[in-house]
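User: Structure please.
Assistant: Input sequence and predicted structure:
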Amino acid sequence: MSNTAEAKTEREQDFDTVMRMSSSPDMRNCLGYGLIVMDGAAIALAQAAGFIRGLVLSDEGQAMDAAHDLMKQLRYLKDYGGCAREEGRSSMVPAYRVAMGHDCTFLGFSLLWLRAVRPTDEEQDDPDLVRDKLYGYESASGVTCVSDRVPWSEAYETWVYKPAWNGGLLYRGPAAGEVYSVALDSPRFWSIHT
């Protein structure tokens, strides 16, 4: 193996990621804390990855474009809104998380944006909010961190996520059929709607 191997483009890396998605039972953890991938969405991601893998047989370039577009949309959703902020402080906790589900359309996803808020005393143990709770803290070496488990540190911030608005990530590419939605830009393979 050579140390001078060429670096892959983002498009090629995205294609490799989607190919791994098509052969792995669960790729949820590779998407970070910004996305909450529900069971139905995990199935839809596997279907989309399998569709792209099949597309390779007829047109590898189009398959790479589709994989790149899907990953670009997932990165946008994962990083939506930046990090949560509080007076004079910032954290690595996402300002928004996007819960993805399966919307029962061909290769489509339902989306629910959740906004980070500091919980009241009553909300600390609310079972409906506990599953969407994140903690921001500073590590012993001074690095700002985020976790979905209570940190060992005594100084941490608790954030819960409450529904803000909903939408969808709709497939518009080859074999999509009729897609009834408003698009403000030229249709790609997938487009985000609110």
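The longest helix spans residues 60-78.
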